[in-house]
Specification:
The protein has 18 helices and 12 strands. With 479 residues, the chain is α+β, with helices and mostly antiparallel strands. It has one domain. Strands 7-8-9-10-12-11 form a 6-stranded antiparallel β-sheet, with helices on both faces. Strands 1-4 form a two-stranded antiparallel sheet. Strand 9 and strand 10 form a beta hairpin. The two termini are 19 Å apart. Pfam families: DUF2252 (PF10009). It comes from Lentilactobacillus rapi DSM 19907 = JCM 15042. InterPro entries: DUF2252. This is DUF2252 domain-containing protein.
Length: 479
Amino acid sequence: MPTKQVLGLKQATDNLRYDLSKIRINKSVSELVQMGKADRDKIPFEKLAQYKAVDRDIVQGIQHVERKLIQELLPLRHKRLAASAFSFFRGTDELMAFDLSKQVSTNIPVVISGDAHIGNFGFYASPERKLLFDLNDFDESTIGSWDWDVRRLLVSILLAGEQLGLDNDQNQEIMKSAVATYQQILCECFDDHSAMERYYFSTEVETFLKSEADDQPLPKLWRKILTSASSRDSERVVKKFTTIDSRGHLVFKENAPRTVHVSDKRFKEISDHLQKYDQTVSPDVTVLLSQFHISDIVRHSVGVGSFGTRCYLVLLTAIDGSHLVLQIKEALQTRRFQGFDVTTPYSQSGPDNGERIVTCQQVLQRASDPLLGFYHNDSSNRSYYVRQFWDMKESMDLNKMDQDDFETYTKICALLLARGHAQSPTAAIVRGYVGKKKKLANSLVDWAVAYAKQVHQDYAQFLKALDNHQLAKEADHDA
């Protein structure tokens, strides 16, 4: 076991350097709304309905991605991608981004999730230990056009709805309802609420979900998740993921290849880099972390699209014997298809990717994990972000929803997406553009239906490539 290392007190770093100037504009809300209305003449809703097929080789694209991933994890990654068309869609967000870059777009910039499918919303704890529900994945977050997020949300609704056995008419009605919710909330944000009211909007589960369900009691499924999430904390992580080794030390259990202990060299490297991370959190968190030392570290892979990247769990033990588990995730460059140009008017090449993710998450989420931070490994030129593992984190099991629950869930996701976008001042332009007309929903749904067919074609091509052993020929061995 490597020598215990305490997370020391460090002086805070400079402010985040991710450039947010593209969403700052020196105009009043009414002026911005009028700008959005004027944009309808330049880009009418009908143009958003037109899907333009893009010539690309998805096998080549996936190979480019996987050359940067850990080779021994690729079979498990492929198994997750192959589970369904929806799983494939979730794990290849960069492919849709490439396609979106070739479509007609409004190009009205806001801070976007970049991967706003319905599986990327979930429960987590606020600093006050309240259970919240919000966007919870920001690996692809950036400044971009609002409609990229809405389109990805709609396609995910259709693919998930198909898995639930809903027919085409039912799925289209649910998608249109989601767009209508997005329009309604964005209009309310700028017509009825001040900047501070938009900022302080609550996503606490008990109050928020009840109000959004027309004052009806929470469905049983939500109640079950609420109870489950509330019990997911660091001490439960310790019970589930750790054991006592032959020397009497508390260590993580191994489950190769998904969960394996790191080498002594990697242990020291991560320990040293956590000192850098310590400089990116607030002073109160720095003082908190100074009470812990590092007990154990494993590489632990999670997710679908991110499965195969460098992810670690760090077991920390406090001076009072309590525990904290941090998760370290590799922060890859947005849209990871090398050779597939997805440059947008708002692309940035300078900021650290961990810094980008942390910045955008703090903008889009009403309350973020206070332990959220980042660091850069200069020797390998890799970026990472750090957060608390589990900590009341839970997600909805979409496969267990009936039609009513599914529609309620999609509306809540659309609402939260609108609330997140509304944190950007430029979202007032979006409000002017989207208005309240049903024609927008019809156009975006038409595009989503056409793109879902493309996803099914890509999924079939992926399965064929797996059968022909075209994938996993080359990859990075470094873990």
